[in-house]
């Protein structure tokens, strides 16, 4: 645990407003103690690892495709990361049946230094149909993607996701460490376009922070929030909050829900960032400043006055966007990019 980290605020998960819009629409994280305690899968996991595995097997689809299993040598200590030269990673991935993963986790459960075994972000409805019938959260009609994460002791480097996230611990214990989006410059983020799991990660080893190499991380630590979650607990992680996830036991299962408080037709802002790197970052400083003003005017501080001087039928992309306008705009952009 990082020295000086504050506890993540908590509330009772069985309270009537635990999953209210006020909680799930907020811009601050919160731990929901016991919000999934009533799940049969949680009860099974509290009994034993074998009971938890049996519960998963009962719901596994017989004809399901293989899952992507991430494995690493015992020497990496469960840390999913780069290799020493940063031209690859310290793990390998293979497609294997889910049942084989569960058998392997059982095999190594009592080992003091087992290989890392990790199945990340796997669709529950595809691989474990029926599981959500009695193991699910009511998120108030939000169109959430439900995924399951299965493994042993793993350390997932701090990263951020565009969607909001509620992560429910089903088996084992998890330690979650959070940082507000404002700590970007103090977390020493690695490559944007080459990373272990699709999201840029902090290069700092949270188990042994090297403050000589990463001195600004000391400031990030002053903003850290941490919690240890038991089976049945969950944490709500708002969009773009940095989160480091650590499985503390020989068998860990987590179910999470991702959703965006935005229309489905909106593209991810990460696409804009990548395109901006190509088109704006290397301009002369005075031109970047001018484009910064353009973006301030049309995007970050846009309001009803931005296009008020243009006749309404002629405002086009300056009008409020909808699915039809977004589709037309996307087609125009693709045509420009590919010309």
UniProtKB/TrEMBL annotation:
SUPFAM superfamilies membership: Clavaminate synthase-like
Region span, Disordered: 1-20
Record domain JmjC: where: 117-274
InterPro entries named in the record: Cupin_8, JmjC_dom
Highest taxon listed in the record's lineage: Bacteria
Name of the molecule in the record: Cupin-like domain-containing protein
């Amino acid at each position: 645990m990082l020295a000086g980290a504050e506890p993540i605020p908590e509330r009772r998960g069985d309270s009537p407003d635990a999953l209210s819009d006020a909680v799930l629409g907020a811009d601050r994280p919160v731990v929901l103690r016991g919000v999934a305690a009533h799940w049969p899968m949680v009860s099974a996991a509290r009994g034993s690892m074998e009971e938890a595995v049996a519960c998963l097997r009962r719901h596994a689809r017989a004809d399901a495709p293989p899952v992507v299993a991430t494995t690493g040598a015992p020497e990496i200590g469960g840390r999913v990361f780069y290799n020493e030269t940063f031209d690859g990673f310290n793990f390998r991935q293979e497609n294997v049946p889910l049942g084989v993963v569960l058998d392997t986790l059982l095999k190594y459960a009592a080992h003091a230094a087992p290989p890392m075994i990790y199945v990340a972000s796997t669709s529950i409805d595809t691989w474990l149909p029926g599981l959500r019938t009695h193991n699910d959260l009511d998120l108030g009609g939000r169109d959430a993607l439900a995924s399951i994460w299965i493994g042993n002791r793993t350390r997932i480097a701090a990263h951020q996701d565009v969607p909001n996230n509620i992560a429910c611990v089903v088996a084992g214990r998890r330690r979650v460490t959070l940082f507000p989006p404002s700590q970007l410059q103090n977390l020493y983020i690695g490559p944007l376009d080459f990373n272990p799991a699709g999201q840029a990660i902090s290069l700092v080893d949270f188990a042994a922070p090297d403050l000589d190499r990463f001195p600004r991380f000391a400031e990030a630590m002053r903003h850290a929030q941490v919690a240890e979650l038991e089976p049945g607990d969950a944490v709500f992680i708002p969009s773009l909050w940095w989160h480091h996830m650590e499985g503390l036991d020989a068998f860990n299962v987590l179910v999470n829900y991702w959703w965006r408080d935005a229309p489905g037709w909106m593209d991810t802002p990460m696409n804009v960032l990548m395109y901006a790197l190509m088109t704006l970052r290397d301009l002369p400083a005075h031109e970047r400043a001018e484009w910064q003003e353009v973006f301030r005017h049309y995007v970050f501080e846009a309001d009803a006055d931005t296009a008020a001087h243009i006749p309404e039928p002629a405002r086009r992309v300056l009008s409020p966007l909808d699915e039809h306008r977004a589709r037309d705009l996307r087609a125009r952009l693709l045509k420009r990019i590919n010309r």
